């Protein structure tokens, strides 16, 4: 059964360009409640751990460098059907394929610097949320 939480982070390009507030506004207006939020910066090593599932992909080293290049804003979000609804809100990984009105269509620069992350399953939402937030911070 679907849980009601997902994990997201606003990525370095979008934070650097001053889109944090606009993106959070879209998230809240879409009905998501923010359970946990902070601004932080990953080391290349931690970025590599977060994206370890992609370690054999050709873009892995670039992704580690990009994701540690500046501050990010990770969040745990709550809403019914959170994972699927959030992926609809952010749009396709490649902004060239993202639907009009999605966060990536509006703010992503490229397939790598694509403004925002969204968990792809309930299980990963839980794992990724725990990567950034201790359980005690979520209550
Ligand atoms: P995200 O949804 O956070 O998951 C993996 C990330 O890898 C993706 O967003 C992009 O930031 C990055 N990436 C870079 N190149 C590619 C690619 N060719 N295909 C998929 N993801 C890529």
From TrEMBL:
<keyword id="KW-0808">Transferase</keyword>
<dbReference type="InterPro" id="IPR034907">
    <property type="entry name" value="NDK-like_dom"/>
</dbReference>
<keyword id="KW-0547">Nucleotide-binding</keyword>
<dbReference type="GO" id="GO:0046872">
    <property type="term" value="F:metal ion binding"/>
</dbReference>
<protein>
    <recommendedName>
        <fullName>Nucleoside diphosphate kinase</fullName>
        <ecNumber>2.7.4.6</ecNumber>
    </recommendedName>
</protein>
<keyword id="KW-0597">Phosphoprotein</keyword>
<keyword id="KW-0067">ATP-binding</keyword>
<dbReference type="GO" id="GO:0005737">
    <property type="term" value="C:cytoplasm"/>
</dbReference>
<dbReference type="Pfam" id="PF00334">
    <property type="entry name" value="NDK"/>
</dbReference>
<keyword id="KW-0963">Cytoplasm</keyword>
<feature type="binding site">
    <location>
        <position position="11"/>
    </location>
    <ligand>
        <name>ATP</name>
    </ligand>
</feature>
<feature type="binding site">
    <location>
        <position position="93"/>
    </location>
    <ligand>
        <name>ATP</name>
    </ligand>
</feature>
<dbReference type="GO" id="GO:0006183">
    <property type="term" value="P:GTP biosynthetic process"/>
</dbReference>
<comment type="subunit">
    <text>Homotetramer.</text>
</comment>
<feature type="binding site">
    <location>
        <position position="87"/>
    </location>
    <ligand>
        <name>ATP</name>
    </ligand>
</feature>
<feature type="domain" description="Nucleoside diphosphate kinase-like">
    <location>
        <begin position="3"/>
        <end position="137"/>
    </location>
</feature>
<dbReference type="InterPro" id="IPR036850">
    <property type="entry name" value="NDK-like_dom_sf"/>
</dbReference>
<keyword id="KW-0460">Magnesium</keyword>
<dbReference type="GO" id="GO:0005524">
    <property type="term" value="F:ATP binding"/>
</dbReference>
<comment type="similarity">
    <text>Belongs to the NDK family.</text>
</comment>
<keyword id="KW-0479">Metal-binding</keyword>
<feature type="binding site">
    <location>
        <position position="104"/>
    </location>
    <ligand>
        <name>ATP</name>
    </ligand>
</feature>
<feature type="binding site">
    <location>
        <position position="114"/>
    </location>
    <ligand>
        <name>ATP</name>
    </ligand>
</feature>
<comment type="function">
    <text>Major role in the synthesis of nucleoside triphosphates other than ATP. The ATP gamma phosphate is transferred to the NDP beta phosphate via a ping-pong mechanism, using a phosphorylated active-site intermediate.</text>
</comment>
<dbReference type="GO" id="GO:0004550">
    <property type="term" value="F:nucleoside diphosphate kinase activity"/>
</dbReference>
<keyword id="KW-0418">Kinase</keyword>
<feature type="binding site">
    <location>
        <position position="59"/>
    </location>
    <ligand>
        <name>ATP</name>
    </ligand>
</feature>
<keyword id="KW-0546">Nucleotide metabolism</keyword>
<feature type="active site" description="Pros-phosphohistidine intermediate">
    <location>
        <position position="117"/>
    </location>
</feature>
<dbReference type="InterPro" id="IPR001564">
    <property type="entry name" value="Nucleoside_diP_kinase"/>
</dbReference>
<dbReference type="GO" id="GO:0006241">
    <property type="term" value="P:CTP biosynthetic process"/>
</dbReference>
<dbReference type="GO" id="GO:0006228">
    <property type="term" value="P:UTP biosynthetic process"/>
</dbReference>
